[in-house]
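Researcher: Batch entry, complex prediction.
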Amino acid sequence: MASESKMIMLRSSNNEVFEVEEALAFESQTIKHMIEHDCADTVIPLPKVSSNILAKVIEYCKKHVTSPKDDNNELESFDAEFVNIDKNVLFGLMSAANYLNIKSFLDLTSQALADIIEEKC
Amino acid sequence: MGTTSSTLSNSLNSTHPRPMKLKLDDIPESCVAMVLSYLDPPEICQLARLNRAFRAASSSDFIWDHKLPSNYMYLVDRFLHVGCAHLVKKDIYARLTTPISFDGSTKQIWVDKRTGGVCLSISAKGLSITGIDDRRYWNHIPTEESRFHTIAYLQQIWWLEVDGDIDFQFPTGTYSLLFRLQLGKVTKRLGRRICNSENIHGWDIKPVQFQLATLDGQHAVSRFFLDNLGSWAYYHAGDFVVEKPNALTNIKFSLTQIDCTHTKGGLCVDSVLICPSSLGKNLRSTV
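Model: Structure tokens for the complex:
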């Protein structure tokens, strides 16, 4: 295997292409499965994920992949800020997390949505 | 209720100038189930009325698996006289949160709706009360103020002793054992609650002792002066810890005031409650 990390290309629903490192892309079990089973070409199409959502997902994965394992406080505050957003974007992120099968992200967005619902109930 | 759901639906669907506006209805059922799993059962049931996806998601076994107490199979086998093969987990939860009588209606078991904690109540008729057969000392009085519709009333006695014993399989956790007691005989006259306090005596001399002991060596003692005139209060005997998940726990407990230099009377004994200590904390009236 090459010493430099392999790059993966992801195409969003509005045809924008994002280039990410393999380690980052593998946070998504869906993408990982596609690549490991040779189901994808050079570019992986993600028709259910728009550019702005995909950008945010990549931002989340990047933070979680690059953060040192024992720095829980920093990750927690990052996560809390990350989901402190408009409800519609949160829905989008949760749907993307589900589609891309990123468990920690799905848990985070689900919990955030549950908190919003609980406030309103 | 309809107003609340539509307000929630509207506020969650509020328009926002974004290219990809996702509506509540677009969220896949599995995602909804994930969100609901973070909420407590009463909220889940409320939200089930929101739309089709929420209703379907609210019934998914995935959610209720986590809400059910870990020993729910034992509870279903012992107390629900139906096979649970055909019941979905949500229905099992619903059945278990309704109090179930057993042992000749002297005991009740239920799961707390909000927390999923297992609670057990033992009626005065399920306890061993010294002198209970002697009407000079004790009487069973029917009342609406007990979940068992009957309480034991102490007229007067030298040796006050109420003992109990139970074998039960509790999920792991810490549990509190509490006695539900009242000083004074309460009657209803013309729709009003009247407390007869003329017989109350002997409670301010020495405290009452509450004890519990488990077969695995746990032990707790507490002492209180009873002072709750005309109102029911829970007196905390102590806590015990269940560590092994599928083990039968045996607990022996007692209420005693056996100082024979004075008589005591006017006490109503309703029941003994065993519940998770987090719930018990809210019930305790005395420190």
